[in-house]
Amino acid sequence: MVRCSCVLFRKYGNFIDNLRLFTRGGSGGMGYPRLGGEGGKGGDVWVVAHNKMTLKQLKDKYPHKRFVAGEGANSRVSALKGSKGKDCEILVPVGISITDEYGKIIGELNKEKDRILIAEGGLGGKLLTNFLPLKGQKRIIHLDLKLIADIGLVGFPNAGKSSLLSQISHAKPVIADYAFTTLKPELGKIMYNDFKQISVADLPGLIEGAHMNKGMGHKFLKHIERTKQLLFVVDISGFQLSPQTQYRTAFETIILLTKELELYKEELQTKPALLAVNKMDLPDAQDKFHVLMNQLQNPKDFLHLFEKNMIPERTVEFQHIIPISAITGEGIDELKSCLRKSLDEHANHENYAYHKKQLLNLQISNTVTYSELPSKNAVTSSRMDII
Fold first, then answer.
1. CATH classification number, 18-145, choose in 1.10.10.10, 2.70.210.12, 3.30.413.10, 2.60.120.10
2. Cα separation of 104 and 257, whole Å?
3. Can you tell me the distance from the alpha carbon of 238 to that of 251, in angstroms, rounded to the nearest whole number?
4. Which residue ranges does the record assign to the OBG-type G domain (predicted)?
5. Could you give the percent of the chain with pLDDT greater than 90?
């Protein structure tokens, strides 16, 4: 067991989802006082999203994590207007959130070629600056990767998320019979016959207390913020992390997972959710599934089994509940179908809401425009106004 843990620790060490960088815009160029020449502006520092980039590649390529743009050219007789300094572009993966050293959000890069200006170059010397150049803006930034996917797999360790991902997609995650097999996010794509694709993220397993950063904690929870929908994956036989921790039934597992999401960020509970009940190939699985369904249909009848601080403000209403076996393939096709149906329904709902809002804005705009027009009986004479 110790040997496995060491190998996995090294593996996790190769995955980076946050990075601190020093950036500085280039200094401006010198002006030319005698002829009134202006120095060139210093180069700017940009952060640019690139699909094939990772934070590990960025760190390996620039171990000092220091990025400075080029200086503006000095004004001279042959070129009174100095040329602008060379911009510095920092390539980062898609899904990056950028904050300054005080934790203030600068922006997000959610698609290929998105770019954000981080540090501006200084102005070149000119009359207003007594022909002396200004230094570029200096800024320390934090890059935080939050995975973007259609579906995020949510479950305790050993629920079978990695096995499920390998069944429904072309991803090849590490699969083993010990806790925390997944120590870094794994992305897979479900391919449909009509070439439709759905991205699925297998994320590090939660444990009780994850909201307080226990176990993988925030390293897991922050990644599900950008997934469109959640797929809860639970072991029909329940879960026990170790002999020192309490055994939890499948129903208790769902309640605890819901609570962890709520405590980390309540908005996560508003995401559409589905439930995959895994390991249905085990003995007595069908009987346990019937018990679980009864509990999910009447959750309030069973919440007395929990301590008050473990009960979520509201229980999750699953759009689909699918019994599966990631080992035998039972229920996998139905699960794929449900995932697509749920995403399509949600997209249609969002489109309807968007168009409805646009129509409402148009109606309001027309009403305001119409009300501003003078009526036929409007009194325009200042004399009449006084009367």
1. 2.70.210.12
2. 29
3. 8
4. 149-344
5. 48
Write down the pLDDT at residue 296. 94
Mean pLDDT, residues 65-71 taken together: 97
Residue limits of CATH 3.40.50.300 in the chain: 149-345
Q: How many residues can be counted in the chain?
A: 387
Could you tell me which of 198, 216, 206, 202 has the C-alpha nearest to residue 166? 202
What is the CATH architecture of 149-345? 3-Layer(aba) Sandwich (3.40)
- β-pairing verdict for 45-49 and 115-119: antiparallel
CATH 2.70.210.12, the chain: domain bounds: 18-145
Average of per-residue pLDDT across 239-244: 77
CA atoms within 13 A on the CB side of 17: 19
Terminal-to-terminal C-alpha distance of the chain: 96
Task: Scan for tokens 């843990």, then name that residue.
Answer: 5
Measured between alpha carbons, how far is 121 from 71 in angstroms, rounded to an integer?
8
Helix (H) / strand (E) element for 98: namely: strand 96-100
Would you put residue 131 in left (φ > 0), alpha (ψ -120 to 50) or beta?
left
What pTM was estimated for this model as a whole? 0.67
